[in-house]
Fold:
Amino acid sequence: MIDCLVTLSGNFRRRPRVQGLKSTDKSLSNSDSKKLSLNLDMKFILSTHNIAVTTAIEDHILAKIEKLEHLDQKAIEARVNIERDQTKGPDKQYKCAIRLGVRGPDLFAEDYEDDLYKAIDLVTKKIEQQIRKLHSKEKAKSHSAASRDKMKRQEANLE
Structure:
């Protein structure tokens, strides 16, 4: 189920939710059948600046977002912003920023690289690290509470 809003320099194109179609349906092209295999339950917004979005770029971003959703199923939305800045040097020409809406403060990462795919990969890696850090904090909180309760029970038994 994909609900994605693609922003192309102010032009909005809404892609409908696609459900119940099989990849063997003759009316679908190969790229549509790939998108059907993605199962995003979160809202996905892709905005660009000075870049024409191709299906390859969009598929690459959707695959990375699906991986992030697998790590954190409670994610509400993902906003991806990709830009091409011609005034900067060729080594920092492409910018990719991802804001992942989760319960609590949103997770945000951005990166500048000479290759757009490399920028997308590095930003996704940064967001993955933030998700893992958030999950370890939650686990540590629950583990410390459980150990406090255990200590209280043991002290009550000694008295």
